[in-house]
Amino acid sequence: AAVPAPSGGYPQRTVGASQPDEDLIAGVTAAFDSAHGLTTVAAADRLATASTSTFTEQQYRNMNRFDAWKKFAAELTRIIQCIIEFAKMVEGFMQLSQEEQIALLKGCVFELAAIVVTRHYNPETTSLILSREVFPASIFRPSEQAELNFFLGMHSCIHELAQLRLTNAEMGLLSAWILLDRSSLGQFVIEQFRNCLQQQIATRIADSGPLMQKLCEIIQRLRGHAQEHIRLLGQLFTTYPQATEKGALPDLYKELFSPPSS
Fold this sequence. Notes:
Main location: nucleus
Strand content: under 5%
Keywords: DNA-binding, Metal-binding, Receptor, Transcription, Transcription regulation, Zinc, Zinc-finger
Domain NR LBD: 39-262
Oligomer: single chain
InterPro entries: NHR-like_dom_sf, Nucl_hrmn_rcpt_lig-bd, Nuclear_hrmn_rcpt, ThyrH_rcpt
GO molecular function: nuclear receptor activity; RNA polymerase II cis-regulatory region sequence-specific DNA binding; zinc ion binding
C-alpha cells in the first residue's frame, strides 16, 4: 500500500534503490542546462581556450577593496539570476508561496552559486574563467585579513567540489535538494531529490556513500561561509557608506545578502 507523504497526500512517484525517478532526473537536468546554458564539456573547452592579458590581470591585482566588492557582487548577481530561473523550473518550487520562495532562495543561494562556479573553475590550474578570460586564483587576494580568510575558505570549497567532477544532472539534483531542503513540501519530496542524486552518482561510482558524505560536508562549510559573507558585507557598508546607495551594488545582491540592520 502507498504510504502517505508527510504533507498528508499520497506520493505520485516511488523512488527505490533500483528504480530511480527518471522523469524527475530528466526534468531537473533540463532545468539546470536551460538556466546555466553551457554544458560542462563546453565550459571545459572554454577553460582550455580562454586566456588573460597581462593588462587585465594587473587591473585585478590593483583593484581597490570597494571596486573588488563591486566586481564580486556583479559576477555573483549574474549567477544568481540564472539560479532563480532554475528554481522556477524545479518541481514543487512554484507551488510555494512567494514569501517562502524568497526565504528559501535567501537561505541557500550562496551555496547554489558556489556549485555553479565550479563549472567555470579548473582544479588542475586553480583558475577561474570570467568573460572568456582565465584568472589564476592567486589574483584574488584581499588585503583585509577577514576577507582573505573568507576567500581562501571559499576557494577551498569550490576546488574540492570541482575535483568531484559532478555531471550536470548531479549538479542540478544537488541544487534542487539544497533549494527545497528547508521547504514546506514535506520530507518525502525532499528525499526524492536526495535519492535521485545518490542514484545518479551510483551510475558512475559503485560506492556513492563517501561522495554523498563529502558533498554534505562541503555544503555545510559553504553555509558557514555564506553567513561570513553577510557579516563582511555589513562591515563593507560601515566602511564605505556609499555602498548602500542605489546603483553602488546590484539591487538583487543587496536584497539577498544585506545584514538585517542595513
